[in-house]
Amino acid sequence: MKVTFNINFHTVWGQKLCVVGSIPELGAWEPALAKEMSYKGDGNWQLELEVTSPVRDIEYRYFLSVNDKQIFEEWEKNHQVFFIGQADQYTLYDYWQVRPANLAFYSSAFTKSLFAHPCNTHERVVKSGKRLTIKISVPRVEKNQRVAITGNQECLGNWHPDKALILSCDTFPVWHIDLDAGDISYPLEYKFLICDDQQQPLYWEEDENRVLNLPPQQVGETAIVSGLYFRDNLPLWRCAGSVIPVFSLRSEKSFGVGDLGDLRMLVDWARKTRQRVIQVLPMNDTTTTHTCTDSYPYSAISIYALHPMYISLSDLDVETHGRVSLRDPEKAAFFARKQAELNGLDAVDYEQAVRYKLEYCREYFRQEGEAILSTRGYKEFFVQNEPWLMPYAAYCYLRDTYRTSDFTQWKENSVFDKNSIRELCSATGKAYPEISFLYFLQYILHTQFKGVSDYARKNGIVLKGDLPIGVNRTSVEAWMEPKYFNMNGQAGAPPDDFSVNGQNWGFPTYNWDTMEKDNFSWWKKRFRKLEDYFDCFRIDHILGFFRIWEVPLDYVQGLCGHFNPALPLTPNEIEQYGLSFNEARLTTPHINREFLPELFGDQTEEVIGTFLAQSSSHHFVLKSFCDTQRKVEALFAGKTDEASLRIKKGLFAIANEVLFLRDPREPDKFHPRISASQSYLYRELSATDRYAFDQLYWNFFYHRHNEFWKARAFSRLTPLVGSTNMLVCGEDLGMIPESVPDVMNKLQIFSLEIERMPKTPQREFTDLYNLPYHSVCTTSTHDMTPLRSWWKEDRAKTQRYYNNVLGRAGDAPEECTADIAEQIVSNHLATASMLTIIPMQDWFAMDDSVKRKDYEAERINIPSVSNHYWRYRMHITLEKLIEADSLNNKITELIKNSGRK
């Protein structure tokens, strides 16, 4: 079979065009084996290829090379040609594919959910044996709309819209039409239009008519024109949705904690209220201690495994989508009582809910496990997921056997060995009963989640996931693939509105150089797993792809961290700013005696005698037994009295008293300490030294790294964003480098916009009327107080917001009333952001008959509390919420009036 590739692309001397593709004749995607095209003049390139491989289709892509090195390639979406009928010759006329300005519409959020089209084909008889196929990308087509074509010849209806031909969409968002080339005389003038289900024209594409002028075809030849894009000028498409952790959902069927059955019911509510997106928090397994500290959803022990607490007990029989009751009536009655007891609680009792749900699953597994593990569905799941499933199950077994998730304590299993793990998981081994139960749990979770995901897509609802920036330092991945992690550092965040001392998440940082060597395969596998369930996702702390805040292991707080990668300063560079670099004075924690009463009050003398050593006539340093925050934390473990807590806090503060931090990789270089102007040591500087330090600090944190971090982010995010079909959003809050918006804009990663966290330093509140279209707008996040609590935090700020933003006169009321909440939500819905996603608590705030009386119980997380207990749960069941017409009608009207779909 002969395939001829044609493309028009203007190059300069020395540049060549190549084709790489899915078949051996095109290098099987290996650029070094790609085929070089011949230049035919006037920007036209051609490649004639004899295809002998027995294939039904080819995917391919063009790229530009110089001296056999690829320098530029098409957008990540490949060209594709299907071989049909008896044709033995295919001539392809392609247009270079560029990244479209409306990239979001090509994501699975639209192609599989919002605009998903049935696989419709419109076969047409080609009597002459000369087939012309025209393909065009038209992603923004509602489910009740179709793409049509008409033109200046009889075969295309002679410009009569009612005679326009409907295109097929079996590869949506690419539409195509097969024409009989024998009926066409060139040049052919034509244009595309959008019709409704009844083939009534809705609108035409923009700009001038298209013209096609091809050489004559031979009998048995198929000519294919591809790479066209529909030209529209439609109003911005926008929609609304809700965000809530799945564990926070409540229904009559759940078991003390939200589950996948509840998520399915939330889809029904979203559809009823005209919403199109449901955003959740991470749902990966986080079990390290079997205590409430495991409730932190961003500390995954596996990037693949789901948390067992999300199993819907009422849908355990995945074959019939129902539950087979426990045969033992006493046990059935026991679990029914536990369910009622846990469902009656105001908040999630994490330990009890997980414990009894797992006990129920064990009973069910004893009863039905053998039959389930013998099903075809389970066997297929196991084969597809074995590379991560077996190590995960072994990890859980060893964690519980050794009673610690710290794999360095697992004796002969402290270092991961594939053969040993396979032997441990052998079906004939003593561990298999527990191992197989863990397999069963993940199979049930996967099957239930896939069911919910398919149900959401069918109902036009996008499920939006959350990708944590880090993983637990004792996770399966850290055990299996330690080469990817730096275990000597702790990931966190610099100080912000959430935490004045910064945040220390405890996660290991990444060895990005190692990850880059295998083209970020670890991250790509994470993305692919998310695609099993989600069509949109949020990259938690996307700034981590630019640089991560790395905290030394000796520190508990995040204040004495530094950015990695970074460009630390040499002593000579520091002194060029006019600051004399006294290394011992500026890098060793110490405190002037005059400041001690501020830290310790009437306990000052006791602290001096017990914890401090005098280093000069006025200064003290911490004694060796308490000279790091980790040592201090251990000294005060379990002490909760007010005096101990104050001393602990004061000693932590002294440990932070430096102006420069030594770089762990280049010990002769230094980082200025973040928020150093708030330190006691800074107060001791002379006015001249303060000025010098301020200049150095400003340049270091806001200028020095801009291009450096931009290059790093592009090298990491470009291949990752290109590897997924999901709509990609980023959480770009906090200390944002100047380069972040540029990178996100070019890659069309949606930003996160919050009114009370403006990204413009001069503003107190974000200007909602000028938000970027490619963004997610929301009233608050899980790390913030919901609207009603925020209203009471700062009375003066609330008053300014009431008068200047809401435009209301007089004194602001003490409470965020329902009508105020409604106005705030309405303002967010009116923005240009494509997605406005409102936290469930803020929807509730709009209706007095629905909202919770105790507004303080609506907080999900307090970032400054490292061991916060994540236990927020809706106060109303989903069954009652679906029937809450007062609130639901209000939400529906607000969304409709905002022009959101």
Protein architecture, described:
- The radius of gyration is 31 Å and the shape is globular.
- By secondary structure, it is of the alpha/beta class.
- Strands 4-5-1-9-18-10-14-13 form an eight-stranded mixed sheet, with no helix packed on it.
- The chain contains 26 helices and 35 strands.
- The longest helix is centred in the middle third of the chain and has 27 residues, at 376-402.
- This is 4-alpha-glucanotransferase.
- Residues 1-98, 124-239 form the CBM20 domain.
- Belongs to the disproportionating enzyme family.
Brief characterization of the structure:
This protein has 901 residues and is an alpha/beta fold.
Which outline best applies? globular
Structural class estimated from helices and strands: alpha/beta
Helix content: 25-40%
N- and C-termini, Cα separation? 47 Å
Number of helices: 26
- Report the average pLDDT across residues: 95
Order of strands side by side in the largest beta sheet?
4-5-1-9-18-10-14-13
Low-confidence stretches are none
- Report strand %: 15-25%
Radius of gyration: 31 Å
Number of strands: 35
Question: Can you summarize the main beta sheet?
Answer: 8 strands, mixed
Keywords: Carbohydrate metabolism, Cytoplasm, Glycosyltransferase, Transferase
Subcellular location: Cytoplasm
Protein name: 4-alpha-glucanotransferase
EC number: 2.4.1.25
